[in-house]
Amino acid sequence: MNVPVYNLKGEQVGEVNLPEHIFGVKVSQPLMHQALLRQLANARLGTHDTKTRGEVNRTTKKVWRQKGTGRARQGSRKAPHWVGGGVAFGPHPRSYKQDMPKRMRRQAIRCALSQKAADQQIIIVDQLDLPAPRTKDFVAVMKALNVEKGLFVLPGRNENVEKSAANVPNAKTIHAMYLNIRDLFKYDKLVLPLASLQVIEGWLGKAK
Q1: What is the dihedral of CA 68, 69, 71, 73, to 10 degrees?
Q2: If phi over 0 gives left and psi between -120 and 50 gives alpha, with beta otherwise, what is residue 14?
Q3: What proportions of the chain, in percent to the nearest 5, are helix, strand and coil?
Q4: Is 134 found in the same domain as 63?
Q5: Are residues 161 and 115 in the same domain?
């Protein structure tokens, strides 16, 4: 699959062949859905907590006597049906962690990349670098590449680019080794320097 290569001015400077075993695999919607749910679930802290009737600080005095009042019998102000009482069946700290084999996770990323390639949402650039951290320069790059909401994949640490993109609401920079299914779905365009493409080829490898 040959795609054009652009510079940061939006000019085509060549072509590159995207490997079929990464950008041309059969797309599996259920697999990508499972991988996305796993990542979203694992991001949950699970620290939510409610107090039961044994944990709230209320009086233990009987509300009124058991018989003779004509009203329903009541035992404690801590009961869930009283205002200020405990919560019945409320959430408590727990783990939402979901497991998924590494081969399935990587195949889900291949499917997402293949879907991006099929939809022509991958932009290959010869390099992604800026002389200094400046938001205005980064916005100019986005405009030249016709990117409104994009994920910029870096081969490694690049403070100038990362700081320049930090204040742009519709852009995010990520290292190629940390490419994930959630960010691939969240951003419309995927901007890949040639160096990042080599990193992705290295850790995704061939589909098995």
Answers
A1: -60
A2: left
A3: 35, 15, 50
A4: no
A5: yes
113 and 83, same domain (yes or no): no
Q: Which domain holds residue 107?
A: 2-44+99-204
Spatial separation of the C-alpha atoms in residues 53 and 51, rounded to whole Å:
7
Q: Does 107 lie in the same domain as 148? A: yes
Radius of gyration of the chain from its Cα atoms, rounded to whole angstroms? 27
Residue indicated by tokens 């995010």: 172
Domain co-membership, 180 together with 108? yes
Cβ distance 41 to 96 under 8 Å?
Answer: yes
The single-letter DSSP state of residue 177 is: G
**What is the rounded CA–CA span in Å between residue 109 and residue 164?**
27
Structure tokens, 54: 């044994």
pLDDT digits (tens, 9 = 90+) for 68-87: 999 999 999 999 999 999 99
Q: Quick one: 27 and 103 in the same domain? A: yes
Q: Mark whether 62 and 147 lie in a shared domain.
A: no
pLDDT-above-70 percentage for the chain: 99
Return the number of other C-beta atoms located less than 10 Å from residue 66's C-beta: 9
Count the residues in the chain.
Answer: 208
Number of structural domains found in the chain: 2
The CA distance from 29 to 108, in Å, is 9
Tell me the whole-structure pTM to 2 decimals.
0.84
Q: How many angstroms separate the first and last alpha carbons of the chain? A: 20
HEC string of 5-69? Answer: EECCCCCEEEEEECCHHHHCCCCCHHHHHHHHHHHHHHCCCCCCCCCCCCCCCCCCCCCCCCCCC
